[in-house]
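W.,

You were right to be curious about this one. When I first looked at the sequence I had no strong expectations either way, so I just let the prediction run and decided to look at it fresh. Below is the sequence, 187 residues in total, followed by the output.
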Amino acid sequence: SMFMIVVTHVLGKGGLRSTVEGHVDIYFITTWIIQVLVYGAVNCYALISGYVGIQSRYKYSKLANIWLQVFFYTFTITSLFALSGFPITALNWRHAFFPIVSGEYWYMTAYFGLLIFMPMINAGINALTDRQLKHLVILMAVVFSILPAMMNNRVAEFSLSIGFEMTWLMILYIVGAYLHRLNLNQF
């Protein structure tokens, strides 16, 4: 998954996707085949979070720990850029001080939101029978993935933003928790 995320960033932030845009040739096809193959990388982390998180003891200190880690790196890097003479605006400093709520790093913002709701999600999952949880997972798959894909539309009201939202991480967290309940050895 980590390698897949690096590939995704090389394709996107590195500019490869935009370079091949509008030219349907072997480079375009190859770039998009690679993109499709690595697209689920972040989903793997959300599934793992649910698989492991359903049995973990929740600690509110984890919220503070993540917030401080993201703050430390963002503030340090912004400070280094400022000391190196790069122009740093007031908005840059605001984002450095409040990286989670400014959306500076979409995954950390979405994951932080998931962490806030995790005790409630875990309590709900643990209150469900295996059969009820199975039905919930099937219903979520149909409503949030299969039907919108079959109808070729995005449902803005679900706020899933093609997998870049807290809501999607919550859905995958629940699926991961369900996978934990299954006896995967039988498969």
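Here's what jumped out at me. The mean pLDDT is 90. And, maybe more interesting for your project: Residues 61-83 form the longest helix (23 residues).

Coffee later to discuss?

I.
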